[in-house]
């Protein structure tokens, strides 16, 4: 979810289009928590790869960006600040949840990604040996889970957990996609095996474990070893399934390519749309039919609002230029 990308790439726009749809569906299902339909495994499946791959893409475009680190940090944090403020107002005064207050370093729901992205940009200047940083960050992530003080503050846990994916993106060359495609059959076999393991383990894995936002003790398992295993498994599953998805994405313009171009705005809007529709009762999850319709409505409204915003933004800038001339 790179904040700025002037040179369009059909491959990555299509990839981001697919990923943002998975994010919207996964997050809204998790929020709705349907009681009559078992969506547990499906949500775990989506959380295996969608944010790891988004982080990977951010790392890839961070490397290609001509902006300085200071510019990237300033722009991303500015977006985070105003989004955090906007959602505080939205939750408190529109949805009527008076418990919400503005807390700069306690990100509202999905906004953690922007705060973590700011940190990854800062760290990218110090990543001089990608291999050592990649391995080291995984080890630190596995160990830091034992620290009971780690939580949502500053998005520390997520920043560390997803850092290896950002580094992998920085290291990635697009020519590697051809290599992945050559071995796609083997990667598919591994992915199926991993997803089968996930299926059998899913009754014992809490969805929150794949959020990666807190320590092992906060996960409320009977032992700290199991959440350690879950986090290690998440890494293996994310890289394997993620590689398979990278190999599947076509390098052509598709129906979801324009959606990928606007992934950041979709990401910023989708949580508000989901909250509003679910808590108002417009989105219903009584049965599978209502679930599909509700998810479709959430996606469509988010997309419509996004393109309406872009259209208004374009009109505004055209008028601004006309006024100057």
Automatic annotation (TrEMBL):
Q: Ranges for the Acyltransferase domain?
A: 11-308
| Stretches that traverse the bilayer | 12-29, 41-61, 77-94, 109-126, 133-150, 184-205, 225-252, 264-282, 288-310
Q: Does the keyword DNA-binding apply?
A: no
Ordered alphabetically, the record's keywords are:
Acyltransferase, Membrane, Transferase, Transmembrane, Transmembrane helix
Q: Give one GO molecular function term.
A: acyltransferase activity, transferring groups other than amino-acyl groups
- What's the protein name? Acyltransferase
Lineage at the top is:
Bacteria, Bacillati, Bacillota, Clostridia, Eubacteriales
């Amino acid at each position: 979810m790179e904040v700025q990308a002037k040179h369009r790439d059909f491959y990555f726009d299509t990839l981001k289009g697919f990923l943002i749809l998975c994010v919207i569906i996964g997050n809204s299902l998790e929020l709705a928590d349907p009681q009559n339909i078992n969506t547990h495994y499906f949500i775990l499946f989506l959380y295996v790869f969608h944010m790891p791959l988004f982080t990977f893409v951010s790392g890839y475009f961070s490397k290609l960006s001509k902006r300085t680190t200071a510019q990237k940090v300033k722009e991303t944090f500015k977006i985070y600040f105003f989004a955090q403020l906007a959602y505080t107002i939205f939750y408190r005064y529109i949805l009527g949840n008076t418990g919400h207050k503005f807390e700069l370093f306690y990100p509202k729901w999905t906004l953690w990604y922007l705060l973590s992205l700011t940190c990854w940009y800062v760290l990218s200047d110090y990543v001089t040996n990608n291999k050592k940083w990649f391995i080291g960050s995984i080890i630190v992530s596995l160990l830091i889970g034992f620290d009971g003080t780690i939580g949502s503050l500053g998005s520390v846990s997520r920043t560390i957990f997803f850092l290896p994916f950002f580094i992998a993106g920085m290291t990635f060359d697009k020519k590697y996609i051809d290599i992945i495609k050559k071995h796609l059959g083997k990667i598919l076999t591994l992915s199926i095996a991993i997803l089968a393991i996930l299926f059998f383990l899913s009754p014992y894995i809490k969805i929150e474990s794949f959020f990666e936002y807190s320590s092992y003790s906060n996960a409320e398992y009977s032992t700290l070893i199991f959440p350690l295993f879950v986090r290690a498994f998440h890494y293996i599953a994310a890289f394997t399934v993620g590689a398979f998805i990278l190999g599947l994405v076509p390098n052509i313009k598709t129906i979801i390519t324009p959606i990928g171009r606007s992934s950041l705005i979709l990401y910023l809007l989708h949580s508000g749309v989901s909250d509003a529709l679910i808590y108002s009762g417009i989105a219903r999850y009584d049965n599978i039919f209502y679930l599909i319709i509700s998810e479709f409505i959430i996606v469509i409204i988010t997309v419509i609002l996004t393109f309406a915003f872009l259209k208004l933004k374009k009109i505004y800038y055209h008028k601004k230029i006309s006024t100057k001339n």
